[in-house]
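Incident review: delayed structure delivery

Summary: a single-chain prediction request sat in the queue longer than the usual turnaround. Root cause was a stuck worker, restarted by the on-call engineer. No data loss occurred. The affected request and its eventual output are reproduced below so the record is complete for anyone auditing the incident later.

Affected input:
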Amino acid sequence: MQRLIRGLVLAAILVAVAIMAGVPPSAAAAEPGTVLIGIYRVAPGKHTEFLKWQAARDAIDKQAGVPQGQWYAHTDGDSWDYLSVGPVLSGAQQKKVDDATRAKGMTIGFKASIEFRQYIGSHTDTYAIGPMTVTELSAMASG
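Output delivered after worker restart:
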């Protein structure tokens, strides 16, 4: 349990740093957005294949004109391998991505989900809001 909590705290810190690093100062004052955070533990011996699979999906996002996620590679500490922070797409954006993916002959939906799992030992997906300063979070918490 402590390991899980430590991992979640580490992930939250990494996400905060990742988001703030890519956001211009004027955007921090805007309403916080929603992001999707993925924490991946890759199956043994599948790291290269996993990265190639994700890179192909990232290229589709770029082609479809949707914001691309940011990726972080584990170097020391907890047991995750990769962490991603990406946008939550609108229905219209997801349709563009699905259409572009299908046009490339790649899988979408449940079939893609099954394909993805051949590379993964475990993963979590979490929605978060931000970026915000701790002062802004405190104000939100206070009402």
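Verification: Helices lie at 2-21, 25-28, 47-64, 91-103, 109-117, 134-142.
Action items: add queue-age alerting; document worker restart procedure.
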